[in-house]
Amino acid sequence: MIRALFVRRLAGLAGAAGLLLLSGCLDVPHPFRDPGVAGRSLARNAPPARLAIPLPAAALLGDEAARTWSRDIAAALLEQTVPAMAQPVRPGDWWLRLGAETRGGLVIPTYSIMTPAGRVRGSGEGVGVPAAAWAAGDADALLQSARQLAVPITGALTGIQADQMAQDPHSLKHRAARIYFSGVKGAPGDGDVALAQAFVASLRDAEDAIQDHPREADFTVSCAVSISAVIPGGTGHPQQHLQLVWRVLDAQGKESGAATQLHDIDAHSLDGPWGEVALAAAQEAAAGVRQVISRYSGRDNVPLPPPVAVPPGAPAVAKVPR
User: Fold this and answer.
1) For residue 246, which phi and psi values (nearest 5 degrees)?
2) Please, what are the averages of pLDDT over each run of 10 residues along the chain (322 residues)?
3) Single pTM value for the model
4) CA distance 139 to 128
5) What H or E segment, with its residue span, contains residue 163?
6) Which residue intervals are annotated with compositional bias (Pro residues) in the record (predicted)?
7) Torsion angles phi and psi, residue 198, rounded to 5
């Protein structure tokens, strides 16, 4: 019923009501994002703000090719928003142990994510590379291998962060996000008030709690509305272009993401009461904001299972390369 009223009120839409989640703001795993003083004190062996990638001595490559491969992986991880650096391991670093093994004419790249204590927290392998290309240190082969490996490595790091959140009773896996909503600005008619009231009512649930002040808020949400001048409509009715941008900032004021709604409306049709339009738009926006918060915070990520127990007699700790 609400959706039907929404579509009827926004007569002349170029398409159905739409919600655009801004790319570049959502698919950010933030596996090594600094959780702050309180978070660091609660997390178990929390990773620092970087992932070291030392020269891979067991990669079946010459020194120069090994150096190139490690740099390629660091660059590929940076593209995945992981702050990796091709450098020796320093005290307190989490680090990436890279290697390779031969199987039937192919070289299989391998990786292990190591804790500062030198213990394996996650491991895997990449797609095989023809042995001749690998042995020659072919630049394209090394680059493609690095880009392919960056995806599962980032996934594992995200799972490690999720496991740490699961162990932290104060993380957003165990409580609702505290959200300060600063309101709506720029809407015609009673839109500022109607949208704000409907959004607050739509966002409250077991995962998100609206609070009245910004102090100790995990996120701050605001909405800016803009409307264009009257333009001729394709149906013969003058139209206006309506844009609603719901911005989400984290506790440090950094943009976590944004949800944008775009509509073409009959000219001046929202100059008075918004009514059911405000409710439908707010419900749609609340879903987008909830998605931004979930992806940015990692509260919905699946924890990486603990590593397999080390067999008796096997070394439990790897030597940290210098």
Assistant:
1) -105, 105
2) 34 34 34 40 44 94 96 92 90 93 95 92 94 96 96 91 87 91 96 96 89 92 92 75 94 91 90 94 94 88 77 54 60
3) 0.65
4) 15
5) helix 139-167
6) 303-314
7) -70, -35
